[in-house]
Amino acid sequence: xxxxxIVGTDEVVGGRAAMALARELxxxxxxxxxxxxxxxxxxxxxxxxxxxxxxxxxxxxxxSGSRAARLLFGDVADELIGAAxxxxxxAPRGYRPPPALTRIGVGYDGCADSALxxxxxxxxxxxxxxxxxxxxxxxxxxxxxxxxxxxxxxxxEVIDGPPGRSLRAYAGQLDLLVVGSxxxxxxxxxxxxxxxxxxxxxxxxxxxxxxxxxxxKQEVDADRANGLExxxxxxxxxALAGLLGVRGGE
Length: 250
Prior knowledge:
Elements: E1 2-8, H1 15-25, E2 26-35, H2 42-53, E3 57-61, H3 67-73, H4 76-83, E4 87-91, E5 103-107, H5 115-127, E6 131-136, H6 147-150, E7 153-158, H7 163-170, E8 176-181, H8 186-191, H9 195-199, E9 207-211, H10 212-249
Parallel strand pairs: 1-2, 1-3, 3-4, 5-6, 5-8, 6-7, 8-9
Antiparallel strand pairs: 4-9
Helix pairs in contact: 2-4
């Protein structure tokens, strides 16, 4: 699934658990890049490393420390959610990989923002011969989903209560939980922790977070690729027209 991974090896982000999860999510020809941040904030350093290496996934372990300590000295997961240019995977403390990732949960609310997490969950499930469980706190939100839309076997679950806490409670039944994350300022995230932020601390299973800016980057890359393809077609057309013109004048 992922081909260029940054793995945080600092003990503050559970380096051993992170490496174990990275191997689970890495593609067959993937490159794993262990990174230790020696100065400054760990989250910001990992985000900068991902930009420099053009990584498609940053993997860390569940950040250590109390909520008060994280507020005072910085929260690695929160920093990554706010700044990472790519997906973020967080392994729980003491993580031991299952034989296969067969139960892939995805937070789903029926909005357009759910499309990317659903697609990524389907791809991972297909690679591991697993199932996707679309989990929603909104009754009927996932009612029209079908396996053909996901690319893997699909189950639907409706949970009660606040989405973040309810998903965290359900996580014990999963091998991996995939969620999206809106781009909010650090101040807004402090005022109202996001679902991704809630899951980053205390989830029983690994969490794969897909920031909103990742989707925007994919759209830019697609537009750039389409532009390059259009340019190549124009060059080929002009070259053919020139060749025909030369032959016609002979």
